[in-house]
């Protein structure tokens, strides 16, 4: 039987007045309170010592390895760190990995919009939107054949919550889905799921490939020259995970050689993408400024899920270890 407990929360927020952070301060469940908001490294020292002793939850809407290291040193009794983001590579550090606290993320909060982006990207190339836009600009009425998504194959590299959302939407379009997961699983969505050594096979089978894996030391550069060399001729690569997962130089080379027929990129090795980067000038490239998860309410919704689901469970005495959004700190996802 679990016992109720208190939650004394410190918010790490770059802007305490951000609507998503303001949403955390009001209507907290009974037993929870925000005891401090920290927006700079200097503010750690300003927290009263009596407050320091009771802090057991960190809510990070702005953070870095340095900030988290300082926070865990300043608040040693922290039991739970929650990141209001899906990716946690920006906060995973030795201090966090070695600390006994549990780490969770906003898994699931951004999956729907990223799945929509994936299907939009597939349609962009299948219906040859660049040609349509050019013909409109030229006032040119010229009919041409387009491709159909139905019957084509989507590869999903990283079959977590976002990857599964992409797969479900692809199935609604009548697509075949091939997934890649380090430990392969069987479910009612993917037609087949390969293990970690199946990337080349996936690339060779798929008309469209979406990279939805988290960035870890093991996934950095995993979609490199070898994997891209095995890509199906004319296939489209979509990256919504993290830029460094894909070898950018090898990707561009594959596009220019015709091995890849198109790129849809929401993430890049360097962000913002430099104005002189060659990707800006390449044909068959759809670029977006890492904003395909930025809906009008995405951060407020992520905060609400923390308040109404995870925080309520924590206050009821449930072990964070059993939360479905638990991050394995050593693995980075």
UniProtKB/TrEMBL annotation:
Pfam families: 2-Hacid_dh_C
Record keyword Nuclease present: no
Record-annotated D-isomer specific 2-hydroxyacid dehydrogenase NAD-binding domain positions: 125-290
Highest taxon above the source species: Eukaryota
Protein name as annotated: D-isomer specific 2-hydroxyacid dehydrogenase NAD-binding domain-containing protein
UniProt-recorded Gene Ontology molecular function terms: NAD binding; oxidoreductase activity, acting on the CH-OH group of donors, NAD or NADP as acceptor
Keywords in alphabetical order: NAD, Oxidoreductase
InterPro entries linked to this entry: D-isomer_DH_CS, D-isomer_DH_NAD-bd, NAD(P)-bd_dom_sf
């Amino acid at each position: 039987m679990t016992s109720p407990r208190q939650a004394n929360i410190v918010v790490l927020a770059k802007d305490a007045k951000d609507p998503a952070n303001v949403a955390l301060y009001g209507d907290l469940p009974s037993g929870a309170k925000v005891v401090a908001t920290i927006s700079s490294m200097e503010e750690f020292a300003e927290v009263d010592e009596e407050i320091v002793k009771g802090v057991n939850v960190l809510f990070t809407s702005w953070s870095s390895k340095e900030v988290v290291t300082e926070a865990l040193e300043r608040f040693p009794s922290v039991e739970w760190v929650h990141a209001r983001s899906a990716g946690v590579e920006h906060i995973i550090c030795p201090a966090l990995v070695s600390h006994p606290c549990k780490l969770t993320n906003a898994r699931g909060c951004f999956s729907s919009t990223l799945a929509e982006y994936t299907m939009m990207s597939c349609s962009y190339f299948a219906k040859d939107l660049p040609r349509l836009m050019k013909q409109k600009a030229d006032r040119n009425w010229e009919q041409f054949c387009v491709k159909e998504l139905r019957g084509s194959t989507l590869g999903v590299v990283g079959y977590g919550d976002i990857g599964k959302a992409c797969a479900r939407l692809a199935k609604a379009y009548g697509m075949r889905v091939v997934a890649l997961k380090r430990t392969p699983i069987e479910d009612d969505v993917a037609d087949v799921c390969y293990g970690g050594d199946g990337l080349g096979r996936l690339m060779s089978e798929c008309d469209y490939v979406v990279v939805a894996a988290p960035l870890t030391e093991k996934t950095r550069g995993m979609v490199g020259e070898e994997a891209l060399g095995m890509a199906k001729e004319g296939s489209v690569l979509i990256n919504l995970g993290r830029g460094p997962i894909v070898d950018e130089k090898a990707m561009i080379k594959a596009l220019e050689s015709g091995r890849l027929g198109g790129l849809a990129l929401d993430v890049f090795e360097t962000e913002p993408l430099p104005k002189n980067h060659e990707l800006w000038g390449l044909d068959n490239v759809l670029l977006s400024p890492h904003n395909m998860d930025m809906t009008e309410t995405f951060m407020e919704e992520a905060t609400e899920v923390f308040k109404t689901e995870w925080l309520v469970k924590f206050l009821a005495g449930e072990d964070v270890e059993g939360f479905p959004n638990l991050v394995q700190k050593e693995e980075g996802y």
